[in-house]
């Protein structure tokens, strides 16, 4: 986790105090159910909850001090709670293992983190839809291979991004369900010393599903899937960031990241305005992608469990969610405040002298009875002149002067082939597919 | 693709002939719809289907020869079809781009490949369930950190694997839906020269959904997600393979990969029987995992599309699916024919002199009124003697001789704590969770 | 391996026949040394070499047929050799294990592959140097963040690439040494049944060093390092490919991949010329990078060895080297025939109305006694006008009209600040650093 | 960075104060050279160094406060220095860009980090050599595929690890040289406003080499190589960690991580002693491996530079070096204090009833004139009985009772084949290769 790429709400989820609060809740809910089942006295559960109602602070330093001696984090915590609550606290943790607490806590942390990420995605989707509708019919050149192809609209570009992040949202909802399970199954997961009813109770109270079969730990294929989904989201984020970077290039300059009045782009070069936010996002996407790898390697734990996954998760749990939260918010800000230059888009569209309409002329010639080969040749011989003139010549003008062309296509028809609107007749169809009716 | 790790049915999906057959079907369905819409004559579509009904062979060599000259695979194919069908073929591909054909074809290939993989998973699940039920109550030692922990059953181990692959199956079904889309949207995806109805028609005929918004290409976040799911499945496969490798170790030897009568484990050492199939699977899992990476990097195509994804997909499309198909089948064979040694499991369970029951004695002492600390100390001082005897001493015997212990726990109660069945009372609960009722 | 991305010389290294030839040589050299040591009769070695001198074909199908029965590739091969050579062949492989043959063979294959790759790099370096010298003083705009920064030369761009690939070459030489070792050390690597002298002899004959300590296998950290170096080379390749793709963008168009007279850029759009070779290379770079991962995971073999690395290497051995060989050759072709447009470079340089000289004016004002803050303000107020005019205004003109500026800097001095050559005075220094004297 | 996996000396390198100290030194050395060259007055450089000699504290908070306003870290720092030093500070940074400072600083940080890592490796090598010599002739079973193969010594196992980390050390020395370069070349790296002599001077003072050709940034193939080497080291670390984990398994128990007197292995199971340090290392190795990926993706910066690498390096610079430093120290501790149980090794060696000598009998029978096939059959028929007896029968006994065997091999010769020492005759050869003479 890099502090400058972290936002407080997400960071808080991963702080010691938040973790200990979840630990307590899991232990207290379990104790309560154990009391109901008659395994421990009711007074044990009551004492815990009574103390909790006093809204006690968590003394992280005191717990740390105990851990330094005991070399066991969960025992240190239980000890500290016992100090606070008194002898009734001794009924906590009956028949449980540390993993029951730790793995269920990770599930709670990841679901909370995911809820923030879902809200981030919603904000991003909101910004994308707003700007897409704003530029639904703003003409711009579509590019394949970085080369001008045919006209499209800037709204369509953003609609594509919307659809992509909407898929990401659905994936994240599914990923949340993957990791939202509770395991309170005791040593090697046999429930030998703790009844499945305890697990069901804690699960329900913590907003989780029951893990059908745990082996002291929750199986790590769930987490692998989760971090793989974050990696996919990061990659989609990178796509949109790269698009902005491309469109802000000096020679293209169809959009710019918002540049605040007093900002300096470069200490040395007073003329610079750089797409630094999206460049920054590109790097963050690389990191989030990388975190999926150790998560995948974590799956093959030995036998009922080993603890190699633990050090990995101490890194990637916070680092992947905190960075993605920051990055999605940054991306939303970029889209929200993006400076869009429709005149420049039109100028770029026009700079190839109308070459972007070559396909329509080709098709029209074919439909007018010219063989495809001949039609291709006719268009190409004029198109190449325009290409070589670097757009100073106009394709339409040249075609009008080409007798072989006009023999097949009257001038008026020819002109119609250079009509931009022709390309936008299905924009509405796509918008309906993406954003639904209206 | 490594031929020795490939099975014919999956390989066939990726062979040129299969690809060309899909190309033809896409083109012919599109032409048919174009005819219905009045864009091309009915005779154009009819000619294509009439020829197709003759069940013509695909002359891959002839198409290749054309591509060598034309440097364009789709044009080469269309040319060859025109040679075969005659002039009516010229109405094919009207308003389409090569990507319309290529991306939709990849969708068809991946869905077909996925159907095979789903069948592979079903076979694996079948084998796992059968063996799990067979060994539902076969006692074996549960191990955490590679160290004996508490008893479990071999059936529970397999039930865990079943639940994991069942999750993988659900993920693969979702992944199939991700990539099962059809795009026939023309240059930069605006439908300028081809109506959305054509796309809908082809999609329906090819068993695909319509891609809501394509930009000449189907967005690659879909494929990234798909290959990420294969990577998760590979990791689960690795987990089970590693489990078998561990259990076959000389010192453990609780299971063995089937060893055919005439087989030689080693040319030099006549005594060897190695878990080579699961070792081999471990390596294959590493490969399938690696293929997810370039798929993730493919997402950030430039503008409406570039073609950097294409070379990646020529590798990972076949390599990931063919290898996973082979590996799943191999894993199913391993499970199906796995030699299981219950006596050896029991012997291993017993080799620690009953130490695996230490927790129960600890809990019983606590419940009998001994403080947890004292109880721990009482158990530990006897447990350590057993440990140091390398299991030659018996924990139960020592405890019976320890007056402090028997003062709290009468001998009969003590003996009950060493009852294996105690650990298995919830096996049925877990089986019901995993396999459903009955 | 994808056939269209493979060249015959590299592919041949990985074909069965080549592998079997190396197997034979290793076995024959070992037998010869065993004979010298008196372990086997001289006649055994002689029979092998006599047969080899007849230049016998390798009957791959016959060996395959034997392997199908024996399920052991090395035994199948030895059997076939015995069939061909006769009873004297029985002295082969004395005290050796299959790994001795397999690992040493992989070392030979990788060193041969590396020699081809080194030649590929030399060709690329040659092309880069030639084009760098050709364009040593061709002015072009340097871009940071995709935004115009200050002038540089196209030759400097290529010199940078040269220096980068020159480092790659040095890394590859080191990587070759890493994997060029021979192990003939018998079961678990103790030399119990084969003397170290045999290893030394085979190593020397096969052009390898002796592996200091093997454990039946050559340790896989060597191979991990090797494939990591290929991944770095691939990444440098991607950098240069991406540079070409950027420079070929319609709006930039400073260079183009060679476009042959009859070539068609697009079936639908007659005006297109796409940088498909470098896009293709970008995808290949992703693959080669991915292959490093399983190589890294291969390192942690269990105990003296397991065989999980083997399936991985059957993929990445050929796939990484064949693809990199193809890609380097393709990249060399791109550079060699690259169409370079100096006029367009100059036009792009000029399109910002001289803004790229803003730093020099700033520095000059400062040196003329204006405070840095004031100087920055003076330059910026004129620069912003030019920026907003989209380069139609000229910075020099505006500055000349700004009394505050001319008060500090006389017109002639001001003009000198817009001298392009000023930026190139150290081009020679850099060229000397990169290419050496002269 | 996870605080519990961090050691202070390495962490200090990455803290803001350390970074600012390096920034100052670079700026001050550059100013000094600029003064020598007559570009700035001598007094400017003197003022800086005079202030520095007062050993001023770095007020990180003050600099942060400035950055919050200026949004530029380097300018904020220069501003703060100017506040401290006075007007003479205005000559700093003349003709330089921020990248000159940032990239050179990263080089200094990475070289310092590397020096710590090299010391870590030296400590590990020391521990490995000491324990290897201690157990040079401690017999233990060599295992291939996790299955008993033939005898080796525990010292040989450690010698292998020593050789592997010795290679890692050499790689790290090379990697250090890769990233130890200084670039002070100004905007887009042309030296237009700063003479190459300044770069040479700063490089020499900071202990770096001159970067032959930079483009405002130091090329990132250098850093990719660096982090790839860390990934290889991590993988070797994982190998040794996994070896310890295997050897500590309950059924094997040939070694144990040191277990301090008061330590508790499990809160629930008083009998447990788990290899948690090496499990922990396994997870850390996964992380360090993952960090190489974004470093590889960083190479393909756009044109002369973009800034996407920067966010990546803010993560992996500290995270990879701090974690590896911690992990190497932890591994050294594990090896240093490793509890080794030679009796248990001998017991494991013996538990297969002498099967581990089967190859020697096979070879002896062959040399006594029995055909290889017959010899194999003779050994195998006795070996399988021993195997099935789970090592209760003795291979030697059975062979002595097999007339077909004794017909070829007299009893005394047979017995000699079961001599352990036979396997250790070349231990010394290997030790000499690994550790050098004596």
From TrEMBL, chains A, B, C, D:
Amino-acid biosynthesis as a keyword? Answer: no
EC number(s) on file: 4.3.2.2
One GO-annotated biological process of the protein: 'de novo' AMP biosynthetic process
According to the UniProt entry, its GO molecular function terms are: (S)-2-(5-amino-1-(5-phospho-D-ribosyl)imidazole-4-carboxamido) succinate lyase (fumarate-forming) activity; N6-(1,2-dicarboxyethyl)AMP AMP-lyase (fumarate-forming) activity
- List, for all copies, the residue spans of the domain called Adenylosuccinate lyase C-terminal: 353-435
Domain of life of the native organism: Bacteria
UniProt key word Lyase:
yes
Q: Which Gene3D superfamilies match?
A: Fumarase/aspartase (C-terminal domain), Fumarase/aspartase (Central domain), Fumarase/aspartase (N-terminal domain)
Catalyzed chemical reaction(s): N(6)-(1,2-dicarboxyethyl)-AMP = fumarate + AMP; (2S)-2-[5-amino-1-(5-phospho-beta-D-ribosyl)imidazole-4-carboxamido]succinate = 5-amino-1-(5-phospho-beta-D-ribosyl)imidazole-4-carboxamide + fumarate
Q: Which family does it belong to?
A: Belongs to the lyase 1 family. Adenylosuccinate lyase subfamily.
Q: What is this protein called?
A: Adenylosuccinate lyase
Recorded source organism is Aurantiacibacter spongiae
